[in-house]
Q: What sequence folds into this?
């Protein structure tokens, strides 16, 4: 456990979400966590992608215990969390997160209590939601204080990102999202995609869309994924890492809302 | 009262009584006090005790003293029934188009709004104004105009459902009450009417189409009858201002796109050239 003491401040919960799959969500989450851990933050990545246990695979992790074992009193909460070599912790989907949809409401409540206890041990919790507009995606976005919408310049990614924004607005009343444009040629393209999407969001939805940054297409990313390692660790000077470092700096200035 | 009447065919009389009641305007009174709403026609038979007949006479709008000869009585009653039917027709129908008239429209709209309140099911109203009708009158004369109005009425009657109440509101303006109908279904019906008018040879010939305005009344709506009509009217004017031959929906009744749905307009904006 990288966080030995309980964080004195309430944790900031940030979701990274996308309308469409395959836009590099998990990769962004993991590398963002790594870079922000370098900024002296206690960080937990919660893998909320119920379909695929992404983070486990990407980081070559094999979780053994889960949250139900904690509920049974067999293990401690901290035993469920995996400490990575990168200075942040991971709560894998296989830890019981993925079962949340199928358990009784009583158990769900106890699990949520457990989770919020866990969250308080960190400064920042990054929620890697699944893609799309399914109810679980919406729910995890609702849990988060801030939502980062990951978009690529592809038309389908843009329309799906818009659809998700609309759902976040209409279903859970979100009035602000952060746009992170992935897999762009350069800064200019990132801005252009963000401005375009923001323009449409401004026109049709009462949502403030804030430009968070861009990540350039970078062959290092694929190389790192094949080696099941984080690109920002393997290639700390790669263009993609530089981009994400900027993003991490911005996020580190965000403050959590007052919580009980 | 019939009890004291000799030689009266009770079965025939009962049948007539039912017919009278069905016409709605008249009622055969057995006991005074039964009829609070309909005009009272009292059939006083000659040998009715004076005390009882006075009671009835006090409440009756029209009295006839009938002979106790059953044949004559029945004939007189039959005549009344026929005349009454004609009167009812005249009082609720527009003579030119045979659609219902405005007076009946107001009555029925009130009834349907009450029903909507009670059943908690929506009721819709379409107001329709013809596009390019005035030039027909000016160019081809009023007879042609009148025939066209009749044709439009027929097209409407062929398009609406049995339960719908099609009305000539006045001039070239029509109204259709859609009882127990959701906005979604009403939009479908309104579009069907609009298309039927645009495609029928009889209207096509004069380039006459319809501007339709649609409003919905829900049981929780506080609006009154006037406001309901005004909403449909406003929507109709909007359809007209947008070029006619279309259906417009009263602003606050417009179906919200589902939260997950991205409209064509939004999609076009998204996929348009970012430059």
A:
């Amino acid at each position: 456990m990288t966080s030995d003491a309980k964080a004195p401040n309430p944790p900031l919960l940030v979701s990274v979400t996308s309308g469409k799959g395959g836009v590099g969500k998990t990769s962004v989450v993991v590398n963002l966590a790594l870079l922000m851990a370098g900024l002296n933050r206690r960080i937990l990545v919660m893998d909320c992608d119920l379909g695929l246990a992404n983070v486990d695979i990407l980081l070559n992790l094999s979780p053994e215990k889960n949250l139900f074992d904690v509920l049974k009193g067999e293990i401690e909460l901290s035993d469920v969390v995996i400490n990575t070599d990168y200075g942040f912790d991971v709560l894998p989907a296989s830890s019981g997160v993925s079962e949340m949809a199928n358990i009784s409401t009583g158990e769900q409540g106890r699990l949520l209590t457990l989770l919020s206890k866990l969250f308080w041990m960190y400064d920042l919790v990054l929620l890697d939601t699944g893609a799309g507009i399914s109810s679980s995606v919406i729910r995890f976005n609702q849990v988060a204080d801030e939502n980062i919408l990951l978009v690529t310049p592809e038309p389908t990614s843009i329309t799906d990102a818009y659809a998700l924004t609309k759902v976040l607005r209409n279903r859970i009343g979100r009035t602000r999202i952060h746009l992170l444009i992935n897999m762009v040629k350069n800064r200019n393209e990132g801005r252009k995609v963000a401005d375009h999407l923001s323009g449409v969001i401004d026109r049709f939805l009462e949502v403030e869309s804030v430009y968070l940054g861009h990540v350039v297409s970078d062959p290092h990313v694929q190389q790192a994924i094949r080696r099941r390692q984080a690109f920002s660790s393997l290639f700390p000077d790669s263009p993609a890492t530089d981009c994400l470092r900027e993003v991490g700096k911005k996020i580190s200035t965000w403050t959590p809302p007052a919580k009980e | 009262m019939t009890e004291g009447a000799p030689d009266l065919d009770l079965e025939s009389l009962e049948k007539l009584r039912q017919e009278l009641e069905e016409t709605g305007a008249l009622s055969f009174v057995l006991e005074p006090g039964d009829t609070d709403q309909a005009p009272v026609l009292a059939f006083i038979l000659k040998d009715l005790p004076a005390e009882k007949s006075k009671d009835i006479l006090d409440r009756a709008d029209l009295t006839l003293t009938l002979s106790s000869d059953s044949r004559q009585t029945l004939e007189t009653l039959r005549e009344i029934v026929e005349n009454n039917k004609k009167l009812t027709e005249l009082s609720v129908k527009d003579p030119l188009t045979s659609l219902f008239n405005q007076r009946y429209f107001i009555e029925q709209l009130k009834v349907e709004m009450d029903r909507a309140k009670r059943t908690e099911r929506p009721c819709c109203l379409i107001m329709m104004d013809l596009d390019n009708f005035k030039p027909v009158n000016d160019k081809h004369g009023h007879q042609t105009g009148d025939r066209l109005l009749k044709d439009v009425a027929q097209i409407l009657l062929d398009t609406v459902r049995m339960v719908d109440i099609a009305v000539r509101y006045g001039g070239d303006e029509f109204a259709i009450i859609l009882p127990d109908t959701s906005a979604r279904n009403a939009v479908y019906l309104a579009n069907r009417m609009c298309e039927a008018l645009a495609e029928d040879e009889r209207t096509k010939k004069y380039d006459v189409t319809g501007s339709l305005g649609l409003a919905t009344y829900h049981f929780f709506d506080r609006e009154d009858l006037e406001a309901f009509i005004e909403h449909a009217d406003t929507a109709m004017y909007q359809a007209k201002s947008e070029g006619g031959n279309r259906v417009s929906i009263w602003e606050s009744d417009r179906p919200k796109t589902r939260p997950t749905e991205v409209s064509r307009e939004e999609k076009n904006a998204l996929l348009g050239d970012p430059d």
Notes: Residues 29 and 42 of chain B are 6 Å apart (CA to CA). Residues 1-8, 23-42 of chain B have pLDDT under 50 and may be disordered. Chain B is about 50% helix and 15% strand.
